[in-house]
Amino acid sequence: MVVGIHRPSKLVINAEAIRNNVKNEISRLDGHSELFAVVKANGYGHGIVETAKFTKQAGATGFCVAILDEALALRDAGLTETILVLGITDVKYAKLAAENDISLTVGDQAWLDEATQILDQKPLKVHLGIDTGMGRIGFQDGASFKKAADYLEQSQQFNFEGVFTHFATADEKDTTYFNLQVERFNHFISQLTRRPRYVHVSNTATSLWHAACNGNMIRFGVGIYGMNPSGKTLESPFDLQPAMSLESELSFSKLVQKGRSISYGATYTAKEDEWIGTIPIGYADGYERRLQGFHVLIDGQFCEIVGRICMDQMMVRIPKSYPVGTKVILAGKSGEKSITMTDIAEYAGTINYEITCGFTQRLPRIYTENGVVN
């Protein structure tokens, strides 16, 4: 996709905030646990390679991604740390993963049997995924899990590097289902003759609120980016520093007379003479149409989004005439007020990291160190 470098709309990523979030979480770990940075989905919208490098500087010893292509991108960028692909990779790419020293998730014996026919000299690092209640991927019973673990122990074509599960409700107050998953996981682990290098269950939410379950590695994801995985339900044990802000400028400003309507469908009509500003950003950039009625910040004041958000532009009601080029904050701070990704998500009826993942490549990512562009 074309990147819009000749318009003012942009994402600003604070590298220091990313590093601080990682350092603060590492300081809470025991001396036997590692932090792998989850940088899938283009670093939750923040940039996969850049985020990986920032987290490495802060002490991350490995990375987690969702698909093999993301892992290959990190290798192409010169990152040599352990990389785990959390999703299931087509078995035909097992040799490619082995050649690039990339660890793959395995969820059934059939995958191992087929991979055995493909692999040659270099063994493939694998993590066995266990489905304790998430319902996505992994072994569901102890017998099949033990068979696979024993198979890996005896095979020269695999390096049994890890075993893991994923919790479905770690970010909720009610821990009933969480505790059930812990019980199931412990049962699976009891089947092992020997534990592999990594035994891990903790995503950001688990590590923040159930640190006793951490194992010897955590998969730190949304917390890297300064977002609370529970939204506003649970308080984080330390101050998560938001890493991303979304900025633009007014591209047009006009006085609209009472009775005139704004945007597609004429869903907003001025009740009196009003100043209306136009911002060059829209749902093609990931600022979704459902955010009509929400607000942005201009000159330290909340300004309501009026009329339907267009593909490339949106309109806001402003308190007075502002010149073209006036700064607009769609996420971030202006004066004493702020808009967080959680604020946007709650209005949109979703979660904060769906918002950041949804920002498209048309928006430039600008990386700063405490406000200074790198």
UniProtKB/TrEMBL annotation:
Catalytic residues in the record: K40, Y264
Cofactor(s) needed: pyridoxal 5'-phosphate
Entry keywords, A to Z: Isomerase, Pyridoxal phosphate
Entry binding sites for substrate: R136, M311
CDD domains per record: PLPDE_III_AR (cd00430)
EC numbers: 5.1.1.1
GO biological process: D-alanine biosynthetic process; peptidoglycan biosynthetic process
Reaction catalysis annotation: L-alanine = D-alanine
Residues annotated with N6-(pyridoxal phosphate)lysine modification: K40
GO molecular function, one term: alanine racemase activity
Cited Pfam families: Ala_racemase_C, Ala_racemase_N
Transmembrane segments: none
InterPro entries named in the record: Ala_racemase, Ala_racemase/Decarboxylase_C, Ala_racemase_C, Ala_racemase_N, Ala_racemase_pyridoxalP-BS, PLP-binding_barrel
Name of the top EC class for this enzyme: isomerase
SMART domains assigned: Ala_racemase_C
GO CC terms in record: cytosol
Biological or metabolic pathway of the protein: Amino-acid biosynthesis; D-alanine biosynthesis; D-alanine from L-alanine: step 1/1
Domain Alanine racemase C-terminal: 243-368
Top-level lineage group: Bacteria
Similarity comment text for this entry: Belongs to the alanine racemase family.
PANTHER family: ALANINE RACEMASE (PTHR30511), ALANINE RACEMASE, CATABOLIC-RELATED (PTHR30511:SF0)
Function: Catalyzes the interconversion of L-alanine and D-alanine. May also act on other amino acids.
Name of the protein this chain belongs to: Alanine racemase
